[in-house]
Design goal:
GO terms for molecular function: ATP binding; ATP hydrolysis activity. By secondary structure, this protein is α/β, with parallel strands linked by helices. It is built from ten helices and ten strands. The chain has a domain of about 200 residues: Rossmann fold (3-Layer(aba) Sandwich), CATH 3.40.50.300. It binds adenosine-5'-triphosphate.
Length: about 290
């Protein structure tokens, strides 16, 4: 990796972040300022509250009076057939799609429907799309470094030297995502599963309170899937996680026979309960698991 390339990517990342922030006041303009929309209040134990949300596309209801909530520190799996509305639900939570009606709260006090996409990311909601997006020409370490320096709370300059504390944070993250031995490898040379872990690590560098993960183990080997389950289980408690997944073995590993699963169908919750309960629910078998 040449310093030029690193610098080039860092500038691109900074420009991207600035564009997301919607600011025209220069790169430093947004940094270090308190967030205008406040700090989420998790004292009541609720991380995410979705109530009666409807989204229509040309009259078709992709979400139809959807209601669900996720507790602080909870790991919730969401399953359901293609077209059930899982992606649309994540689009609403992250501000990409505005619903026709309903309420979406982060903690007990932050009305997400009043915030823009970039503000929702800044306030502590991280989203992982299905396909990994990492900087392939940068090393694993450099990818994490960029993510760390883009964090508005800690950022001084993209080109400043890392402090001892920052180095420690990156080191701890490398351990957590099983990539310590690959720290200096180019991200483009990683396996699909390793790229997914790296992107999750990049999200975690910004310490999101809620993580939305869309089919994180699609395309992974069995061993990678198992390690991903271990990683997510280690994150629960510290973070709240919503995992959309079709892989029932992975859902079983995550729920460990005791966590709730939500089944979406036709834009609303069809069933909620332990995996063993929803697997034996005739309605769920009919629309999803039995096919
Ligand atoms: N922009 C859009 N315009 C029109 N229809 C849309 C749009 N986005 C989603 N839909 C429709 O809304 C429904 C829900 O789609 P969504 O992608 O949320 O389902 P999903 O549960 O994520 O499915 P999958 O498991 O296949 O990813 C589908 O019927 C889809 O075709």
């Amino acid at each position: 990796m040449t310093p030029d390339l690193m610098e080039d990517r860092a500038r691109a990342y900074a420009a991207h972040q600035q564009k997301l922030a919607g600011g025209s006041g220069g790169r430093a303009a947004g940094f270090g300022r308190p967030m205008a929309h406040g700090v989420p209040d998790f004292a009541k134990g609720v991380a995410l509250y979705v109530e009666d949300v409807t989204v229509s596309f040309d009259g078709f209801k992709a979400l139809n009076a959807l209601s669900l909530s996720i507790d602080v520190g909870e790991l919730r799996c969401v399953i359901g057939p293609n077209g059930a509305g899982k992606t649309t639900m994540m689009d609403v939570i992250t501000g990409k799609t505005a619903p026709d009606q309903g309420q979406v709260f982060f903690g007990s006090n932050i009305d997400l429907l009043r915030l823009r996409e970039n503000e929702i990311a800044q306030i502590g909601i991280g989203r992982k799309f299905q396909k990994p997006t990492v900087y392939e020409e940068l090393s694993v370490f450099e990818n994490l470094e960029l993510a760390l320096k883009a964090d508005r709370r800690v950022r001084a300059s993209l080109f400043s030297r890392l402090s001892g504390e920052q180095l420690d944070r990156i080191g701890a993250m490398l351990e957590r995502i099983h990539l310590k031995p690959s720290a200096q490898r180019l991200a483009g040379l990683l396996s699909h599963g390793q790229k997914q872990w790296l992107e999750i690590g990049m999200l975690l560098m910004q310490d999101p309170k809620l993580l939305l993960l869309d089919e994180p183990v699609a395309g992974m080997t069995d061993e990678e899937t198992e390690r991903t389950a271990e990683l997510f289980l280690s994150l629960a408690g510290e973070h709240s996680l919503m995992v959309v997944e079709h892989d029932m073995k992975f859902v079983d590993q995550l729920t460990q026979g005791r966590r709730q699963v939500t089944v979406l169908h036709e834009g609303r919750v069809l069933a909620e309960g332990l995996l063993s309960q929803v697997q034996n629910d005739e309605r769920v078998v009919e629309v999803y698991l039995g096919r």
